[in-house]
Known about the structure:
By secondary structure, the protein is α+β, with helices and mostly antiparallel strands. The protein folds into 2 domains: 12-183 and 309-409, 3-Layer(aba) Sandwich (Aminopeptidase), CATH 3.40.630; 185-306, 2-Layer Sandwich (Alpha-Beta Plaits). Helices cover 32% and strands 22% of the residues. It has helices at residues 12-24, 67-70, 102-118, 155-162, 211-232, 276-294, 316-329, 345-350, 374-378, 383-399, 403-409; strands spanning 28-33, 39-45, 53-58, 87-89, 92-94, 126-131, 169-173, 179-180, 182-183, 185-194, 198-199, 242-248, 257-258, 261-270, 298-306, 309-310, 355-358, 380-382. The strands form 5 sheets. A 7-stranded mixed β-sheet has the order 1-2-6-3-7-17-8, with helices on both faces. The protein has a 4-stranded antiparallel β-sheet with strand order 12-14-10-15, covered by helices on one side. A hairpin with a 5-residue loop joins strand 1 and strand 2. Helix 3 (102-118) packs across helix 10 (383-399), helix 5 (211-232) packs across helix 6 (276-294) and helix 7 packs across helix 10.
Amino acid sequence: MVDIPSPTGGEAPLAEWITSDLASAGVDAEVQRIDSSQANAVATIPGGDGPSLLLYAPIDTFTTGDPALDIPGAAVSWRPDLAPRSVVSGDIVEGLGAGNPKGHGAVVLAVLHALHAAGVTPPGDVVGGFGAGGMPSFAVSGVGAPDRTNTGHGVGAGFMLERGYTTDFAVIAKPGWTVLHEEVGLVWIDVTVHGGHTYVGSRHRIPYSNAVASAGRVAVALEDWLEEYAQRHRYSTMTPQGIVSSISGGLRRLAASTPAAVTLRLDLRLTTRQTPATVLREVRAMLAGVSEQLGVEVSARAVAAIPATHTPPDSPVILAAVDAFETVSGSPHQIIMDNSGATDANILRMRGVPTARVGMPKVAAVPDGSSIDFTRGMNLVDVREMQRLAEILIRTVFLLPSKDDSARAG
């Protein structure tokens, strides 16, 4: 899977490979096409009359595997782990997306093969879903259908459930050695800092307001404010973080001028106590003070939003996943706190499917002792942890209630 590039919007080749791999073993599988370049893979293991379960993993990668698109954003220079090529060192596999998401997707794939080969009948149908567009991303330049702009932010998960694969419950396989029943949402906000378009030779002769310099001051103010924002909105298992992620503006061909406006893009996470609209108003109120202090016009608008979601902890799928986790880990389950990661679990819950999230711990060390930053952490997986996750998923399947138990559970 690592060796098949699957940037957001261009997942079709990997979806086709997954489908072929399962179908060749006799599993009922199909490619679910969204457009000519983007597709999900979906498979079904028939079960009894109990509740159906979706085992889900996204398949698009955080970066693309193309140096022209990834450098210098993901790294100052090209590195082997950024390439869609798997390198095996003992129990460690390294390559683009080896840990997140493809290691988790490979576990779901292995579980489907195991259930089919064993010839067992699960309590209910088990659907394996491999979703396109799971990363928090707008369309990637040069990837996928040129007229599509909505290729990320859970588009594949939503399409999968919309087109015939809505189940009673779901388990999403994403990083984190715990079982989670809720997660933050997000709102992306464009903050525009206004200035004056002028010429360097006239700086001393006419009013001068450099939007680039002002945007820098606004960015610093936002970064400081976002630390306080996270603590103020901490709730349950969630501590919603925020970042200033990018800056755009100015004419690079015309360095003799200042731009009339510069735009900062923010990602703010939010809890189940917040909404995207309330977060936008909060940001605007903060910026009003910054605008007055700096004496420049600053405006803000939301460009993307996904609400936070919650599944009751006593939902059968949460109880089953926790039971399975405790058996495999050999210790009582402890929920990881202060979470700020958003996944397609939000999309599944938004469509009415109670969802548990469970995954592998990130690789903490590699054989050569070299350092592991965030990006490399996404691109590493330990096959021993994959085996443990597979056992958790299989146990979860069979710990879900039968038809009669499901009726009593309400």
